[in-house]
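PROTEIN DESIGN WORKSHEET
SECTION A - STRUCTURE
LENGTH: 332
TOKENS:
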């Protein structure tokens, strides 16, 4: 299905992306990359010695979603945790460089900043080193998050719940955030993971991918009928306004009560790297809905955005101009 929108309407929608305030509640992460070369094997153990030439840190997890919102011209308000450690300092420095509001990034003692460090030698990914603790956050931290959200709720255009099963989104926090959003009639979208899959009731959009849905229901999704059944089951159980099931190379399927399912095929011409595509989808979708797009328009733009970022290597955020220029060239 093509997007039924005039170039003029598309331009108006693009303008409305600017400055939309989107809170992202979830598991904040840091991605580290160490690049180097191998010239010899260690005398201590049969392992390569990687001589590091370059190191880079980028936002990951829920913070990558916030970063995508920023590059779409909207204003992200990340709400989550970091540790009182060196990675936490790097995280804060990145926030400063990008001018992102740091007020709701809470430091919880005794918990590391969730960091995934990749060691890449001679263009070969050798090892990934993860620092994380995934137990649920303290009740006091949960209260801080809710207090902050309650204080700013009237300024928000939407809330994203971004779950990576790292302990921030507890069952009680999920329920409190959804309740608050619904009281204030604010768009709330969800990118779920396995643990709390069925806790996200009564949201605006629930956006699982195929694997998360298969794991949650203990099924395999292979045929079109499987996709339809899974989408309808989620709608029925979670009572969300919309369910968007992302299907990798098959694009996505949109479900809404009382309406027939709609599919949008993938936009990636050449897939270089799918990492971060789900973050791009939830960010673009939510900003588009906040800007006044309908669910089909928002899904189309989100799917298009994912297609663009999949053509890049590594996790890159979607740029506002790149997205709308690409959509425009398709409409002409």
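SECTION B - SEQUENCE
RESIDUE ASSIGNMENT:
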């Amino acid at each position: 299905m093509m997007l039924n929108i005039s170039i003029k309407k598309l331009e108006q929608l693009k303008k409305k992306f600017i400055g939309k305030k989107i809170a992202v509640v979830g598991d904040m992460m840091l991605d580290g990359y160490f690049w180097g070369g191998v010239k010899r094997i260690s005398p201590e153990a049969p392992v390569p010695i990687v001589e590091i030439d370059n190191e880079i840190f980028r936002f990951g997890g829920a913070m990558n979603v916030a970063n995508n919102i920023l590059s779409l011209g909207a204003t992200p308000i990340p709400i989550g945790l970091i540790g009182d450690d060196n990675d936490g300092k790097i995280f804060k420095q990145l926030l400063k460089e990008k001018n992102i509001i740091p007020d709701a990034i809470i430091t919880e003692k005794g918990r590391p900043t969730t960091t995934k460090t990749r060691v890449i030698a001679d263009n070969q990914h050798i090892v990934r080193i993860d620092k994380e603790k995934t137990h649920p956050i303290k009740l006091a931290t949960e209260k801080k998050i809710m207090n902050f959200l309650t204080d700013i709720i009237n300024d928000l255009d939407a809330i994203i719940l971004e779950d990576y099963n790292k302990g921030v989104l507890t069952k009680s926090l999920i329920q409190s955030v959804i309740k608050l959003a619904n009281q204030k009639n604010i768009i709330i979208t969800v990118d779920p993971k396995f643990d709390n899959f069925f806790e996200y009731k009564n949201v605006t959009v629930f956006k699982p991918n195929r694997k998360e849905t298969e794991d949650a229901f203990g099924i395999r999704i292979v045929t079109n009928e499987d996709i339809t059944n899974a989408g309808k089951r989620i709608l029925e159980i979670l009572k969300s306004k919309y369910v968007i099931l992302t299907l990798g190379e098959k694009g996505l399927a949109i479900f809404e009560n009382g309406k027939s399912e709609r599919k949008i095929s993938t936009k990636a011409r050449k897939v270089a790297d799918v990492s971060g595509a789900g973050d791009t989808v939830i960010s673009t979708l939510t900003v588009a809905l906040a800007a006044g797009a309908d669910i089909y328009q928002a899904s189309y733009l989100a799917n298009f955005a994912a297609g663009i970022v999949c053509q890049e290597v590594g996790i890159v955020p979607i740029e506002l101009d790149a997205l709308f220029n690409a959509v425009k060239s398709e409409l002409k």
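SECTION C - NOTES
The domain at 7-32+60-331 is CATH 3.40.1190.20 (UDP-N-acetylmuramoyl-L-alanine:D-glutamate ligase).
The radius of gyration is 20 Å.
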